[in-house]
């Protein structure tokens, strides 16, 4: 089938401002990138979003609203014969957020990781068992699965029961615009607005136990007082499930006069670029990642990176970051100090990170994703 003929439906619930409050998590960034870049691959893309269980299409502005909520569709899926399928006037539908139902066109699902099933202790406990059961059932309804990393494949097979022969790895990326530094005056204005001096340690991500930010805070506090005074720890991310202890620790550190800045309401992508540009070291000590887009964003911003040596992060970072044991605050602190003060290590990591970011762009992700559609439709 010719690429130009592919009519693609894309699940966009995770980028609906009326449903998310304007904050994009990793799935939202991924979805938004596909929506913007798939048309350049010859696909005609129609966004579709699931409305709330109550309230109808209120809050839906990016995509067309499905006629009923995902909860209602899931219940219908459970109680109707397998032959029943939602009618979609499409060649293929791409699910980006695990919300899979049976459709009368092929369904491709991006399964970012198996975190809720593999590590339920890090997730919202409310109805977790039922959610995991339904999510696993839903995943098996996809005709083909996109994994973001090779690391993820064994876990998707184990936890979701997907057929490894129906899985294709398509890595995430960054927009090519990130490879061009923002205007220095714009960066200075953003830093001034947040009372920041350039050269700080930066973390970006939703505050959840798996992100390991409490250990990052402990590592930063191990650095000499002079280093902490010169280089703030800047944490960008909204509080997520089970983040109460971390928030309390950050508040205690700030009350003690520590040079800690928490930006919990930042949603502007240009300001985020400015914050990367002003950073001295990016630190990403996550315990579990299906991919780790912020690492690529730091690479593209010419910022040296300290990252965990676990899950998908070595695959994403290659040899461009200092990889450390995320359970060791001491090892984390030493890597932070090295990239803050060792010019040779900084130069090497910045150059290698830049090369890595140039390899992994959202344009490349979209092209490989369109190839998956073509392969599915040719079967």
SSE pattern, N- to C-terminal:
EHHEEHEEHHEHEHEHHEHEHEHEHEHHH
Q: What profile does the largest beta sheet have? A: 7 strands, parallel
CA-atom Rg in angstroms = 21 Å
CATH superfamily of the largest domain: Glycogen Phosphorylase B
**Based on CA inertia axes, which overall geometry fits?**
globular
Describe the structure.
There is one protein chain. The protein is of the alpha/beta class and 379 residues long. 42% of the residues lie in helices and 14% in strands. The protein has helices spanning 17-20, 26-37, 70-79, 115-118, 128-139, 152-160, 184-193, 213-222, 225-230, 244-255, 269-278, 293-300, 313-317, 329-341, 343-359, 362-377, and strands at residues 7-11, 44-49, 64-65, 92-95, 107-110, 144-147, 167-169, 200-204, 233-236, 260-263, 279-284, 305-308, 322-324. The strands form two sheets. Strands 3-2-1-4-5-6-7 form a seven-stranded parallel sheet, with helices on both faces. A six-stranded parallel sheet has the order 10-9-8-11-12-13, sandwiched between helices. Helix 13 links the parallel strand 12 and strand 13 (322-324). Helix 7 (184-193) crosses helix 11, helix 12 (293-300) crosses helix 15 and helix 14 (329-341) packs across helix 15. The radius of gyration is 21 Å and the shape is globular. One of its GO terms (biological process) is lipopolysaccharide biosynthetic process.
